[in-house]
Design brief:
- It contains 10 helices and 12 strands.
- By secondary structure, it is α/β, with parallel strands linked by helices.
- It has a 6-stranded parallel β-sheet with strand order 1-12-9-8-6-7.
- α1 runs parallel beside α10 and α2 (about 50-65) crosses α10.
- The longest helix has 23 residues, at about 10-35.
- The chain binds NADP nicotinamide-adenine-dinucleotide phosphate.
- NADP nicotinamide-adenine-dinucleotide phosphate (NAP) binds near residues 170, 199, 271 and 274.
Length: about 290
């Protein structure tokens, strides 16, 4: 029998609660504004995982009362065509949030497209102005996945001040903004990456360990301090010989759950929180974007 079973950080349940709160907020605001909030996801190509994410977002928007203005383009669409689309969405007064679904096909420059999104419609919080505001601890639209992790930790009253936090992964999408958010809450933050020497001993120092890498079972039980909080951002698709597939994270869940105090499942942990934060950002832009009323 395992000596300790970690408590689940239930992102699915919390996301549902956030959707309900947003729905009520939208109902009130819509009565004043005369239109619903709008989110536009721009998708290029037919990557099945991206298509599933976009469908998910559209369903979540519908539940909350956000209108979807999604735009779908074939893989061979040019940079110039997409720039024009972003410009149209920037000008469209029904659209409060714009999101370019990543990854884009190789011939496209995603960074320059992200820079082109109006910062006050930057639902993904990836525009340099919003990232700069995060760096300066100013209010602004925050990147959805790290914001979702922070909201989940807050929900379970997990103390951050003075705690040793190790974030494995340093992408601009997850690792770096998350490290800044944790720092703003007075955690002592270490960022680990593919060149980190002896990841196991670095990870074992963590009171709170976040894995944002994209490698199945990168984090094994011997890398986790007993009683730590473990947040698994990773999404990896495993297929068996019969062609069935399932999603797993970066953490060896069963073994780590025996020694951690809290752990996020995959699926049902950080993923639903990312969508909840996207809707949150859209409603925030809508409530602040008075010139579009
Ligand atoms: P990414 O851009 O590929 O970054 C991965 C990071 O992991 C890089 O910083 C890389 O280090 C580091 N890394 C790679 N191998 C490593 C190793 N062996 N040891 C330590 N670090 C290693 O990925 P991402 O966009 O941040 O996404 C990370 C994972 O989160 C993916 O599985 C993605 O699908 C998932 N994700 C989930 C959500 C969600 O909503 N749940 C949202 C976004 C992403 P270097 O910088 O040195 O290369």
């Amino acid at each position: 029998m395992p000596s300790q079973i970690a408590q689940i950080l239930d992102g699915k349940a919390l996301a549902k609660k956030i959707h309900e709160e947003l729905k009520q907020r939208v109902q009130i605001l819509q009565a004043e504004r005369g239109r619903p909030p709008g989110l536009a996801v721009v998708m290029v190509g037919d990557n099945p995982a991206s298509a599933a994410y976009v469908r998910n977002k559209e369903r979540a928007c519908a539940k909350v009362g956000i209108a979807s203005f999604n735009r779908y383009f074939p893989a061979q669409t040019s940079q110039q065509q997409l720039e024009q689309v972003i410009e149209e969405l920037n000008q469209d007064s029904r659209v409060d949030g714009i999101l370019v679904q990543l990854p884009l096909p190789d011939h496209l420059d995603s960074v320059s497209l992200l820079h082109q999104i109006r910062p006050d419609k930057d639902a993904d919080g990836l525009h340099p102005l919003n990232l700069g505001k995060l760096l300066r601890s100013e209010p602004g639209l925050r990147s959805c996945t790290p914001a979702g992790v922070m909201r989940l930790l807050q929900e379970y009253d997990i103390e951050l001040q003075g705690k040793q936090v190790v974030v494995v992964g340093r992408s601009i999408l997850v690792g770096k903004p998350l490290a800044l958010m944790l720092l703003a809450k007075n955690a002592t933050v270490t960022i680990a990456h593919s060149r980190t020497r002896d990841l196991a001993s670095v990870a074992r120092n963590a009171d709170i360990l976040v894995a944002a890498v994209g490698r199945t079972k990168l984090i094994t039980a011997d890398m986790v301090k007993p009683g730590a909080v473990v947040v698994d951002v990773g999404i990896n698709r495993l297929s068996d010989t019969e062609g069935n597939s399932r999603l797993v994270g970066d953490v060896d869940f069963d073994a780590v759950a025996e020694i951690a105090q809290y752990i996020t499942p995959v699926p049902g942990g950080v993923g639903p929180m990312t969508v909840a934060m996207l809707l949150h950002n859209t409603v925030l832009s809508y409530s602040q974007n008075l010139q579009t009323s």
